[in-house]
Amino acid sequence: MKEHFAIKYLRREILPTVFCPGCGNGIVINCFLKAVSDLGYEDLSGFAFVSGIGCASWCISPYFKADTLHTLHGRPIAFATGLKLARPDLQVVVISGDGDLAGIGGNHLIHAARRNMDLLVICINNLNYGMTGGQVSPTTPENVTTTTSPYGNIEPPFRLAELVAAAGANLSARWTTYHVGQIISTIKKGLKKEGFRFIEVISQCPTNFGRRIGIDKPPDLVKWIRSICTVKKENSNEKLRLGIICERYRPGYVSVLKSLMERVRGEG
After folding, report:
1. Which residue has the higher pLDDT, 202 or 234?
2. What total number of domains does the chain contain?
3. In which band, very low, low, confident or very high, does the pLDDT at 10 lie, cut at 50, 70 and 90?
């Protein structure tokens, strides 16, 4: 029983929850804190968390017992970059949604991956702009009905984990909220690496996304999400591939910048 409630010392008990019934955000919160606990952290004093605007941005504040920055829509990675350069000793973690990170903030996402900035970014992808009414996002599947696509979405979606991998991240992975054990192990892997690390979690949104596609029961929506995913590499063109998309060992931006500064000072 003690082990089951081990992560309580890392989070605040706030009731009622700010999330809609059946939302997957709570699963990701618990996965992250379980990973931190498994790695032996006694508190979150060595962390700083950054989020933008959207449902997923509520994961860290007010729930984490930690220093947090709740920033402008689409700008969490920009804020996190400045924070990491100012305080390289901290584990800087961004947790936000697909609309915030890939829509409004897509440019920051790809360039942070290109630079291999030393950040862990967890994107809770609920396939729509859930907080603002269920509009099409950059990850909404084709032909899906949303607030702004009443006759079906005609835009091809981004595959975020592949996009970030192609941009140069040291680690890029994708799971669903069904894959709790895999999320925890990948977060632990990410926390032990340098450079840019990206974990996409496909999550259910029964309130806005689910009811517009006729699946408003959370368990059924999780099953539907699993049906559009696969662990087989050869089927990745038809479905979203789950697992580790890429893993590299390039030096992180902070260490590269430090080496440059030392060289310049030495030449001076």
Report:
1. 202
2. 1
3. confident
Per the CB < 8 A criterion, the answer to whether 202 and 177 are in contact is yes
Give residue 38's pLDDT: 94
Give the number of C-alpha atoms closer than 13 A to the C-alpha of residue 142, restricted to the C-beta side.
9
Task: Kindly report the length of the chain.
Answer: 268
Q: Are 174 and 245 in contact (CB under 8 A)?
A: yes
Q: What pLDDT was estimated at residue 232? A: 80
- Assign 14 a pLDDT band (cuts: 50, 70, 90): confident
State the Cα–Cα distance between residues 89 and 86, nearest whole angstrom: 9
Domain that holds residue 249: 23-267
Contacts of 25 (CB under 8 A, 6+ apart): 19, 55, 56, 58, 59, 124, 203
Joined together, the tokens standing for residue 204 give 């259910």
| Residues 50-60: tens digit of each pLDDT | 999 999 999 99
CATH number at residue 176: 3.40.50.970
- 211 in any annotated domain: yes
pLDDT of 6 > 70? The answer is: no
**Coil, strand, or helix at residue 86?**
helix
Alpha-carbon distance of 159 to 57, in angstroms, equals 21
Mean pLDDT of the chain: 93
Question: Can you tell me whether residue 51 is helix, strand or coil?
Answer: strand
**Does residue 4 lie within any of the structural domains?**
no
- What is the pTM assigned to this prediction? 0.94
Tokens standing for residue 267: 């030449």
Q: DSSP E strands: which ranges in the chain?
A: 47-51, 67-70, 91-97, 119-125, 171-176, 196-202, 229-230, 240-241, 243-247
Structure tokens at 46: 């060595």
- The strand order across the sheet containing 196-202 reads 67-70, 47-51, 91-97, 119-125, 196-202, 171-176, 243-247
